[in-house]
Amino acid sequence: MPEIARFYGILIRMYSEIDSPHHKPHFHVYYQGSQAVFSIDPIETIEGS
């Protein structure tokens, strides 16, 4: 999975899923033991915290 950014221990990744049903456009955020998924427009939490 491509890494978009890494700063202050926060890792942001984005998947590309061609021809596969999935959520609306989103990115994954990882920090220490936590992870969350956010939609891009509008920016909202899809899952996690």
Which secondary structure elements does this structure contain, and how are they paired or packed?
Elements: E1 3-7, E2 10-13, E3 26-31, E4 34-39, E5 45-48
Antiparallel strand pairs: 1-2, 2-3, 3-4, 4-5
* Chain-averaged pLDDT: 85
Strand fraction band? over 45%
First-last Cα distance: 20 Å
Structural class: mainly beta
Major pleated sheet: 5 strands, antiparallel
Shape: globular
Please mark out the parts with pLDDT under 50 across 5 or more consecutive residues, or reply none: none
Q: What is the spatial order of strands in the main beta sheet? A: 1-2-3-4-5
Q: How many strand units?
A: 5
Helix-residue proportion: under 10%
What is the string of SSEs from the N terminus onward?
EEEEE
Number of domains: 1
From the alpha carbons, calculate the radius of gyration and give it in angstroms: 11 Å
Number of helical elements: 0
Summary keywords:
mainly beta, 0% helix, 49 residues, five-stranded antiparallel beta sheet, 5 strands
What does this structure look like?
The protein has strands spanning 3-7, 10-13, 26-31, 34-39, 45-48. The protein has 49 residues and is mostly beta strands. It has one domain. Strands 1-2-3-4-5 form a five-stranded antiparallel beta sheet, with no helix packed on it. The protein is globular and about 35 Å long. The mean pLDDT is 85.
